[in-house]
Amino acid sequence: MTTPTSIVAPPILFEDGEALVIDKPAGLPVDRPRRGGPCLEDYLDALRLGFQRRPAPVHRLDTDTSGCLLLARNPKALKRFNKAFEERLVAKTYLAILDMEPAQGTGTIDLALAKISSAEKGWRMIAAKKGKPAISHWELLQVISEGDRRRSLIRFRPETGRTHQLRVHALQGLGCALLGDPVYGPKRGQNTGAARTMLHAETIAVERAGKPPIQAFAPFPEDFACAGLSAPEVPGFEPADG
Asked: At 113, which CATH number?
């Protein structure tokens, strides 16, 4: 398949014999959309980088979400990385923008999630007592003022990896959907001041027995800076530019 010319190939943030971490751009689906169009699969041949096999994504990021995406370069590594995710041994942080200022500076959101669907609205996740456990820690990094409005930069550290976890936890745990979220925020088509859901997979770290850990950091996105926020310091990584 020909690589689409409208999408910039994802930069590589980490590489060794069993793993790649790429900086997935916002707007690039991991899986092929039902309606067709570009997706990560279009770049897997180019990401072989001399290896016989194409790398395989270990986890998923929403189409709008940018940042760290882990790929396994062989089946054994894929199996080990999947097990690490299942056992909650993968550490991740995400940056998000909210059009509000939380009352506190840090906190933990413990809301189980379940999937619902309807003909009118399609499917979505909701907080439900009988849902799957979902836990997210968060901290407030920055607040800017725009008249009477406040805009916040939040760092999330999820313990679990449920579908749409941070998007639902932001809405029902902090009281405000992520900026630009068309599902959990304002209705699609309304002006939110953002071209996408403002969520960025900032870091990922995976411990490995007998090998150095996988560690990767995805630089602060340009559209986050255009929204008025500044790149925060990331413990364990070089300070971000800008």
From this structure: 3.30.2350.10
- Give how far Cα 32 sits from Cα of 28, 63, 239, Å: 10, 10, 35
Among candidate residues 31, 42, 45, 62, the one labeled active-site is 62
The answer to whether residue 237 sits within a structural domain is: no
Residue 236 domain-assigned? Answer: no
- Determine, yes or no, domain membership for 117: yes
CA dist list (Å): 170 to 54, 87, 92, 149, 234: 35, 24, 17, 18, 21
Round to whole Å and give the CA distance between 193 and 18. Answer: 40
- Walk along the chain (242 residues) and give the pLDDT tens digit of each residue: 444 444 446 999 999 999 999 999 999 999 998 888 899 999 999 999 989 999 999 999 999 999 999 999 999 999 999 999 999 999 999 999 999 999 999 999 999 999 998 767 678 998 999 999 999 999 999 999 977 788 999 999 999 999 999 999 999 999 999 999 999 987 654 556 789 999 999 999 999 988 999 999 999 999 999 999 999 998 777 544 43
Q: Residue 135 falls within a domain, yes or no?
A: yes
Active site residue 223: no
